[in-house]
Amino acid sequence: MATRPLDRVRNLGIIAHIDAGKTTTTERFLYYSGKSHRIGEVHDGQAVMDFRDDERERGITISSAATTFYWNDCELNLIDTPGHVDFTAEVERSLRVLDGAVVIFDGVEGVEPQSETVWHQADRYEVPRLCFVNKLDRLGADYFRCVGQIRDVLGMVPVPIVVPAGQGEDLEGVLDLVAPALIVFDRESLGERYERRPVPAEHRRFVDEHRRRLIEELANQVESLAALYLEDRPIGEEDLRRALREGTLARSITPVLAGAALRNIGVQPVLDAVCRYLPSPLDAPPERGVDPSTGGTAERPPRPDAPFSAYVFKVVAGSATELCYARIYSGRLEAGMTAKNVRTGERERLRRILRVHAQQGAPVETAEAGDIVAFAGLKNCATGDTLADERHPILYEPIRFPDTVVSVSVEPKTTADRDKLAEVLRRILREDPTLHHAVDEDTGQTILSGMGELHLDIVKNRMIREFHVGANFGKPRVSYREAFAEPVSGRGEFDRLLGSQHLHAEIEIGVEPQPDRRKVEVVSRLREGELPGSAVPGVLESLASGAEGGGLYGFPLIRIRIVLLGARYAETGSAEIALNAAAAAALRDALRRGKVVILEPIMRLEIRTPEEYLGAIMKNLHGRRALVEDTRFVGSVIVVRGSVPLAEMFGYSTTLRSLSQGRAVFSLEPLDYRPVPDTLAATFSRRL
Ligand code: GDP
Ligand code: MG
After folding, report:
1. Apex CA 629: angle with CA 624 and CA 631, to 5°?
2. What is the DSSP letter of 465?
3. Which of 407, 426, 454 has its CA nearest to residue 555?
4. Which atom of ligand 1 is nearest the CA belonging to 43?
5. DSSP code of residue 467
6. Quick one: which of 104, 156, 302, 496 has the most CB atoms within 10 Å?
7. Are 373 and 353 in contact (CB under 8 A)?
8. Which residues pair with 181 in a beta bridge?
9. What is the DSSP pairing of strand 100-106 with strand 129-134?
10. How far does Cα 141 stand from its chain's mean position?
11. Bridge-partner residues for 332, per DSSP?
């Protein structure tokens, strides 16, 4: 790879609601830029970026594949992101390393529930965006309705810079408002050749009108243009481009473009806009992290001459090799250099640096700040790790993932499958930080938990198809939690003869409800000298892992603080074993004596439906303990918003399909945990 000015690099993501046309658009990006030699279509199962078998089958995009291509004098590092809400974590981790994004909307459906979710995630990561309103060839498509929704629903200032010439069947091309022209795309070459023509008479008024609005909106939002505008000075193409770039980077406006990717209309102007208006790594502020030697903050500027640092945002475990995708935030790297994994403290030799175009990785000798690369053959690297110059370590903040809400049991079919299952699980878990695994103490079964039914279904298919593990999977179940409703204390004692040693320890704890905290907090309030300092961490650890391992009903405890109040022990060689065991016993005692409640995951629910099915859908929701908060028209459909216990929503996609003849869509997102109703609580059995 030749070194190139960093200001020509775009680390780019495409984000959208499922089916808006992300894969279709990406295929054109790669084809027009010369990166691929044919256009793979989603409906043929041939798309380059969707390379896993299960993705092909489902026709949806699950994992983020990364690829590099060139457009004009720009290098684009593209990360494909999924649209399904079960995979928010995948979106999160790509947003973490992106500098800018193209958001794709379906010109008929407009702003859909998950476009909103992803939009707000991108807000959180302060990612500048462009919008592409796609599928304008479809019957019922309406570009300006979609622009209106971007304004009203997403709360953004949309600025159309490319608008459709005609709509639906009459879509003949697109109109450029910045440098006024009609752009038409040649069918023979699949849109690769296109022509800019003077705006024809029938579109002239339309273009003038919208260009005037473009200038007004920009003058409203961008100071440099406001000055020109107010002084009534002539405003040229370059002034508009400068203002569009300024406004986009500041996120005070979002440029909007139009097209129909499947018909090869309007895609190249999107690429032009990416290069013109989206940020380069240099436009990003220095990346902030922690200096592991002092615990204070540290930062790295996006420059090749700064110490090396990179953030691993994804690990992909193929059956042959494991790839760690990383964004290099600073410094320069040569193949064969060593770096420190700051989380583990281990040294890693970075032998193979890859640029990745779907499955065909091409090794390179160097990489530097702003690059997105994959490392092959690292010893031990997980999603969220920081790799850094050994002499100048820095630790970037890991991505925080939501709690798991659904679990499923897995059992090897034969003893021979057992080892294979363990090995495959280890790999998949390293790759997917939203997947958790535990062993049920009572049954010895392995329990996998994840973000939703679809998520676990995909994990299961991978294990069977890609890794050929012989295993039986149980039915997906809700992941419950437990908490304490009132403070309680607990005492535990351990007393046993071990060979010639008499082991004895007693532990006293208090447990307090912490409704506002997600996790378990464990603190010591022991008096000075009550325990040797070295024994305290072990006891606290024992309490924490006890809480995680499951409470009265076997579900992990959350929202509590456990306070270590007292400790006594016999000073023998193995006092620590006795103390840790006594701590575990103290927690069990508190569980038996306390008021334990079972919590269930409550999901945020959104349903979009044509009006005629609303009655049937509402009636059906009624039997599912759903709480409907809002029902309103958005465009031509009704949007129902509310919350519902996850336990009531298994298989809902089938139900909703039959209630609405396949016309309604829904999304579920984790919202909260709430106590289960008493009648339901009575059906769980106690372990203690
Ligand atoms: P993704 O889920 O966002 O990756 O969307 P896909 O690219 O898989 O597209 C979903 C479906 O919409 C596929 O059947 C595409 O062929 C179709 N599609 C994509 N773009 C267009 C378009 O511009 N016009 C029409 N009519 N269909 C499109
Ligand atoms: Mg796709």
Report:
1. 100
2. I
3. 407
4. 14
5. S
6. 104
7. yes
8. 176
9. parallel
10. 29
11. 368
Query: How far is the centre of ligand 1, averaged over its atoms, from the C-alpha of 42 (Å)?
Result: 7
Total number of residues shown for the chain:
688
Alpha-carbon dihedral of residues 607, 610, 614, 615, nearest 10 degrees? -160
Strand positions, DSSP E, 22-177:
66-71, 74-80, 100-106, 129-134, 158-160, 162-165, 173-176
How far is it, in rounded angstroms, from Cα 131 to Cα 122? Answer: 13
650 CA distance to ligand 1 middle (Å): 28
Q: Round to the nearest angstrom and report the end-to-end CA distance of the chain.
A: 62
Digit-coded pLDDT (tens) for 465-524: 888 999 999 999 998 999 999 999 999 999 998 888 888 999 999 999 998 877 899 999
For residues 193 and 405, give the distance between their C-alpha atoms in angstroms, rounded to a whole number. 49
**What three-state secondary structure class fits 378?**
coil
pLDDT tens for residues 45-69?
A: 556 555 555 544 444 343 445 788 8
Most informative mutation of 87, 262, 267 for ligand 1 (most atoms within 8 A of CB): 262
117 C-beta closer than 6 A to ligand 1: no
User: What interhelical angle do 267-277 and 237-249 show, nearest 10?
Assistant: 70
Distance 134 CA to ligand 1 centre (A): 8
Q: What is the set of domains in the chain, with CATH numbers?
A: 6-200+251-283 (3.40.50.300), 287-396 (2.40.30.10), 406-479 (3.30.70.870), 482-594 (3.30.230.10), 601-681 (3.30.70.240)
Eight-class DSSP state of 414: S
DSSP assignment letter at 575: H
Q: The pTM is what? A: 0.73
Judge residue 21's burial from the number of C-beta atoms within 10 Å of its C-beta, 0-12 exposed, 13-18 middle, 19 or more buried.
Answer: buried
Return the residue whose CA atom lies nearest to atom 9 of ligand 1. Answer: 21
Contact 239, 231 (CB under 8 A): no
User: Roughly what angle, to the nearest 10 degrees, separates helices 237-249 and 223-230?
Assistant: 140
Q: Is 174 in the pocket of ligand 1 (CB under 6 A)?
A: no
